[in-house]
Amino acid sequence: xxxxxxxxxxxxxxxxxxxxxxxxxxxxxxxxxxxxxxxxxxxxxxxxxxxxxxxxxxxxxxxxxxxxxxxxxxxxxxxxxxxxxxxxxxxxxxxxxxxxxxxxxxxxxxxxxxxxxxxxxxxxxxxxxxxxxxxxxxxxxxxxxxxxxxxxxxxxxxxxxxxxxxxxxxxxxxxxxxxxxxxxxxxxxxxxxxxxxxxxxxxxxxxxxxxxxxxxxxxxxxxxxxxxxxxxxxxxxxxxxxxxxxxxxxxxxxxxxxxxxxxxxxxxxxxxxxxxxxxxxxxxxxxxxxxxxxxxxxxxxxxxxxxxxxxxxxxxxxxxxxxxxxxxxxxxxxxxxxxxxxxxxxxxxxxxxxxxxxxxxxxxxxxxxxx
Amino acid sequence: xxxxxxxxxxxxxxxxxxxxxxxxxxxxxxxxxxxxxxxxxxxxxxxxxxxxxxxxxxxxxxxxxxxxxxxxxxxxxxxxxxxxxxxxxxxxxxxxxxxxxxxxxxxxxxxxxxxxxxxxxxxxxxxxxxxxxxxxxxxxxxxxxxxxxxxxxxxxxxxxxxxxxxxxxxxxxxxxxxxxxxxxxxxxxxxxxxxxxxxxxxxxxxxxxxxxxxxxxxxxxxxxxxxxxxxxxxxxxxxxxxxxxxxxxxxxxxxxxxxxxxxxxxxxxxxxxxxxxxxxxxxxxxxxxxxxxxxxxxxxxxxxxxxxxxxx
Lengths: 371, 312
Known about the structure:
The complex is a heterodimer.
Chain A: H1 3-17, H2 19-40, E1 48-54, H3 63-73, E2 77-82, H4 85-93, E3 99-103, H5 107-113, E4 117-123, H6 128-149, E5 157-162, H7 172-181, H8 183-203, H9 205-210, H10 216-246, H11 254-278, H12 282-296, H13 311-318, H14 321-335, H15 343-370
Parallel strand pairs in A: 1-2, 1-3, 4-5
Antiparallel strand pairs in A: 3-4
Helix pairs in contact in A: 2-12, 7-10, 7-14, 8-10, 8-11, 8-12, 10-11, 11-12, 11-14, 11-15, 14-15
Chain B: E1 5-16, E2 19-30, E3 34-38, H1 45-52, E4 60-65, E5 68-69, H2 74-80, E6 81-84, H3 96-106, H4 111-124, H5 140-151, E7 158-162, H6 170-185, E8 189-194, H7 197-203, E9 206-211, E10 214-219, H8 221-229, E11 233-238, H9 243-247, E12 254-258, E13 261-265, H10 269-282, E14 287-293, H11 297-305
Parallel strand pairs in B: 3-8, 3-9, 6-7, 7-8
Antiparallel strand pairs in B: 1-2, 1-4, 4-5, 9-10, 11-13, 11-14, 12-13
Helix pairs in contact in B: 3-5, 8-11
């Protein structure tokens, strides 16, 4: 037999005998296609919560009520009514609504008497895509509303956009930099920790470690520290390059970012350790880590908001610890979130890390006993 | 050698599914001795050693190391053993010193003790000359020495060596044998497995011969050879055309013909050999070789199992 054919034949046979490797090789394209179909292969039923403040208390006809019901009827917006603008802006900053429309005094009078009529609009700018959809939707609604209301008047309703005090208009790079910063939480941490144990097993050096008195948990912590080091390097490089190449106008709140990124990395590393204990061969483990990493990046809101996903996939995203890390990083960098704002994701990340490590130790013990 | 029993194994049984790798193995190793497990591949030597090192569980039986139970006190036991498997378990991209430091960390060695042990490894095991070289730059012999140094960096009282010289050329093998003897001289108790009868003969104070998961004989090598391997014999090689003719004058002795070689079994071969030689000369038969051959552990193994050590 030709040696080239011989080598190829041997490798193909080996591939088919490693059932896990075959599984991940098939699972990767299947998962990717299913995921892309679920996310992009449908009419995205975009909906957004918006707030309305009605300052036109003397309106002779229920124009405000018509606006509210009209907005609700679009099925794009869910309208919440606020007593005053301050309350509405607080809700906007807390991301419970995406925009605030204020109907000013004399709005109905002006509209019915042919005078120029306007409403003010404040849009949540922290997600450029969502902001664009909301802004366009509201402008289109008021243009249509005007035409429906009185075709005789020539002066349309103006939508005057205001900036929120606490929110600045951000571009796509401001949106994407926090997401990219989370990239190492998924890939560097997971792949590094998977590789760490797989390497020992492949080299046979795990035998030496197992023959020593080191406890399984200590062994996993040692691996975690090394993976954490690698993850930190990746994060620092991304952060420095992002500052110099993109120069995003974001809030680099280091004291808050460090604990969140640390906890996110710990979760990624723990998942990597679990994968390495499940994988029967190095190829299987690295295939699993890469596939899971690539698939998870769509679920944790790194590149686009979780709301873009179908509801059932959003639920999957909410079950992944790194989603909370990614959201917290974005909140710190874009929304200037404070410690109190990120306490909940921190608690979630701490609990999930503890659970994942506990499962990791059990699996590692079971795995080494089977060796 | 002391009388103290360092390793005690009673009725150890290990199954791998349907296969029984160890079938009621019992033995003890005394302080300061080199104890050999001799047997062909698949005899259960490696399984037994890996069980003693805490790498595998067993199904039945009991084992203690320095009085500590292998299962109940597994962490303590692992700290008392230096395990050096067949393969070189070093990190290629690290230097020998870095590898030693890593191994020391597994046993929580402090800096002072580590320095002492590095000095020991440098002087006694001869790793000093390549301490700062990366493992990938070392020769096979150097790697084995570094591997041994890493295995006993924590100064364990017991050293377990699994086929320590397999694949070595004769010179390096002999060099390694000296290292093992040195370990014994430094008070270590050594348990080694081998399928090399000369190695077992050269190194071991006592040998357990294993076959199919059982110990079929256990004693000092010379006792085994004498009691089971039989007496020394006279081996005669003549020209192929004269073999038949040569057998006639030797009829009075108990003899066999194996591989064109006449083997004579007598109780006093040294006294008989001149007589045999003269008889052949008187018949005009030229001998190519005539020698007295002592029994080997291979003979012991063949007598006990009917197979050679090299057969699977």
